[in-house]
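Whiteboard transcription, Tuesday session. T.W. wrote the structure tokens on the left side:
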């Protein structure tokens, strides 16, 4: 899985939050990357972004992290 979003030296801006929100709605599970020029720790950036978009932080490995949030528009499958 390739990272769909990158957080650069500007940190978590409103543009990053809105892009993350839209991508989570479309895909539910996304991989993101914190670039080398960002001075913050990747785990801090991941936790803050997850909180702002109301998603679950699945894991942080190095400078990459996974976010999950169920889509509001996709049907729920009920098993018999």
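and on the right, the sequence the group agreed on:
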């Amino acid at each position: 899985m390739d990272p769909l979003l990158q957080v650069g030296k500007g940190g978590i801006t409103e543009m990053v939050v809105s892009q993350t929100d839209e991508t989570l709605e479309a895909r539910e599970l996304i991989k993101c990357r914190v670039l080398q020029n960002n001075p913050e720790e990747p785990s801090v950036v991941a936790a803050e972004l997850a909180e702002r978009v109301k998603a679950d932080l699945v894991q942080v490995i190095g400078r990459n992290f996974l976010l999950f949030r169920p889509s509001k528009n996709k049907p729920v499958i009920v098993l018999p």
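Someone added at the bottom: The chain has a mean pLDDT of 92.
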